[in-house]
């Protein structure tokens, strides 16, 4: 797995690589789920594989070292002392993230010996184990909202010889008992930078987290630092992949029926345009689109650019026509193509940025802007009616 990540340039030489190379994942994750149902099949079906069963070991090893995400909990169940076998219905409620993304983010975090680290969202404990290996477990705190996840991680980290503080609680509130932290890492998407975590960040400290909306299509990586004098600064980087939303995070998705509709329906209108759709690599534009015109989800499985707004039923697809022109078909109350071109024009006028400045004021105000201020948007405070994002 490590060699494959190195070939894919997702893992650079250094302490994170050494930690992953030394980590026996079957000790940290002796049980994991493998999905047996088709993508759109309901109810969903899984099998819980167990390292103690010789017949499960080959498949479990392939899963653990595939580099893909590994489901570890179903419907909030207790994790220790589970009986392996099939499960039906419900949902996966905890998992270990994709190895390449985790490795890249931990490399960017800049872990070093003796640092105090706060790991928010314990999951399978992979991030905590890397932090213990690199920094020493005495300075590591890992927090998860689910006590079953915390209990399992505590036992399995101990089996590796690591004894960090493993706590249960709202990770966005941090863990005041061990402040300040030199490094803070959140392993789930949040809608804004949690103010409590910034107050717990040490001078010269760094925090990383995925900033996302209800759409899974266009995440941003927030990199926040505190200077020696205490000034908090940040940047928001448009990225291809990010962490999923945490507990309580409303997440839009395109149902199978809606996907079929937007790829086959004649729509309400079709127009021919000489404007070329923005490239997939124009991630700074897509990130801005997600904030200026929220509620859109990209259908990445379609042959051509296809976007839907599941809350109102609007959609748009773009297909190449002839002589550098494009056929744009749409339906619903929103003109998604017009929204797209509006943001694309503003993004280009601002210099086509890939990275934005993330302003975090002492009063809780947060704003994303370009260095010249030509393109900017606020990050709203959470709505109390929808609960806390954890």
TrEMBL record:
Q: Which keywords does the record carry?
A: Cytoplasm, Methyltransferase, S-adenosyl-L-methionine, Transferase
Q: What is its EC number?
A: 2.1.1.77
Leading EC class: transferase
Where does the chain cross the membrane?
A: none
List, alphabetically, the InterPro entries matched.
PCMT (IPR000682), SAM-dependent_MTases_sf (IPR029063)
Q: Main location per UniProt?
A: cytoplasm
For this chain, one GO molecular function annotation is:
protein-L-isoaspartate (D-aspartate) O-methyltransferase activity
Q: Which GO terms describe its biological process?
A: methylation
- Indicate what this protein is called per its UniProt record: Protein-L-isoaspartate O-methyltransferase
Its Gene Ontology cellular component terms are: cytoplasm
Where is this protein found?
A: Cytoplasm
Similarity comment text for this entry: Belongs to the methyltransferase superfamily. L-isoaspartyl/D-aspartyl protein methyltransferase family.
> Which superkingdom is the protein from?
Bacteria
């Amino acid at each position: 797995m490590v060699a494959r990540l190195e070939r894919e340039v997702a893992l650079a030489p250094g302490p994170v690589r050494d930690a992953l190379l030394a980590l026996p994942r079957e000790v940290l994750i002796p049980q994991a789920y493998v999905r047996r149902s088709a993508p759109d099949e309901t109810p969903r079906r899984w099998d819980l594989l167990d390292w103690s069963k010789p017949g499960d070991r080959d498949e479990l090893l392939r899963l653990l070292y595939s580099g893909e995400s590994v489901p570890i909990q179903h419907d909030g169940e207790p994790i220790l002392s589970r009986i392996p076998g099939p499960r039906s219905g419900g949902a996966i409620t905890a998992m270990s993230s994709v190895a390449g993304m985790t490795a890249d983010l931990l490399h960017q975090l800049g872990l070093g010996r003796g640092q105090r680290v706060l790991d928010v969202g314990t999951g399978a404990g992979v991030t905590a184990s890397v932090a213990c290996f690199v920094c020493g477990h005495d300075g590591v705190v890992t927090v998860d909202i689910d006590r079953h996840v915390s209990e399992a991680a505590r036992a399995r980290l101990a089996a590796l010889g690591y004894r960090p503080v493993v706590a249960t609680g709202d990770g966005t509130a941090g863990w005041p008992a061990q402040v300040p932290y030199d490094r803070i890492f959140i392993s789930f998407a949040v809608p804004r930078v949690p103010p409590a975590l910034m107050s717990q960040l040490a001078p010269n400290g760094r925090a990383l987290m995925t900033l996302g909306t209800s759409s899974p299509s266009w995440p941003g990586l927030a990199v926040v630092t505190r200077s020696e004098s205490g000034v908090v600064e940040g940047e928001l980087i448009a990225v291809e992949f990010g962490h999923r939303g945490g507990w309580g995070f409303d997440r839009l998705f395109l149902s199978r029926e809606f996907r079929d509709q937007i790829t086959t329906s004649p729509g309400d209108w079709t127009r021919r345009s000489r404007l070329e759709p923005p490239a997939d690599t124009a991630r700074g534009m897509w990130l801005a689109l997600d904030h200026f015109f929220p509620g859109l989800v990209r259908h990445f499985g379609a042959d051509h650019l296809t976007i839907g707004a599941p809350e109102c039923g609007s959609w748009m697809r773009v297909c190449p026509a002839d002589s550098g022109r494009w056929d744009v078909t749409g339906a619903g109350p929103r003109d998604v193509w017009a929204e797209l071109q509006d943001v694309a024009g503003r993004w280009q006028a601002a210099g086509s940025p890939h990275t934005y400045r993330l302003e975090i004021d002492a009063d809780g105000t947060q704003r994303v802007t370009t260095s010249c201020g030509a393109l900017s948007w606020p990050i709203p405070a959470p709505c109390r009616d929808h609960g806390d994002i954890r």
